[in-house]
Amino acid sequence: MGLNLAKISKDAIMTIRIGSSEQKCSLFLLADLLKGGLVLSSVIETVRDLVMPILNTNHFQLVDLEYVKEGQSWFLRVYIDKPGGINIEECALVSDLLGEQLDQADPDPIPQAYVLEVSSPGAERPLKNEADYQAAMDQYIHVSLYAAIAKKKFYEGFLRQLSAEELTLDYKDKGRPKQITIPRKNIAKARLAIEF
């Protein structure tokens, strides 16, 4: 089956998962990549290389990076945190310093116009790596699945056990306490959640 690169919509988005890392990518950009254009992962890696010294100097943590197209606009989102939480002035500082680094980078790592957003991950912080999962032990989380388990594609509950292969949640089903073990390879996304 061939791919007709000329017929790809500029608004089509695709999610690419490599290991435990997940990135959203414009199919148009992917088509451009197939024709020898910009590599989305290189944008993320270049931004990571630029932002890490800024974060390390200020004792902040990088939670996540996103480079996504929404509507007609591109967004570069940098989520940062520190023990005790991050404030708006600290986000503005990182935004200013990273903006300067991006403006001075040669060649320009991001050739299209974009909006730079630096913020805290918020109450529903994504769980991206092993340290995030360890920090979430005994906390309430939301887990989205690639394939349904017991006819459900997502679960919310307290993270009780964690291994390299699976995690176990205590959750409620129609008010009754239950427990489920989920293979980690079946987890599309996981994040902290607010219990209602």
From TrEMBL:
It comes from the Bacteria. The keyword Cytoplasm applies. CDD domains: YlxS_C. Keywords: Cytoplasm, Ribosome biogenesis. One of its GO terms (cellular component) is cytosol. Residues 50-124 form the Ribosome maturation factor RimP N-terminal domain. Its main location: cytoplasm. Pfam families: DUF150_C (PF17384), RimP_N (PF02576). This is Ribosome maturation factor RimP. It comes from Lapidilactobacillus dextrinicus DSM 20335. The gene is rimP.
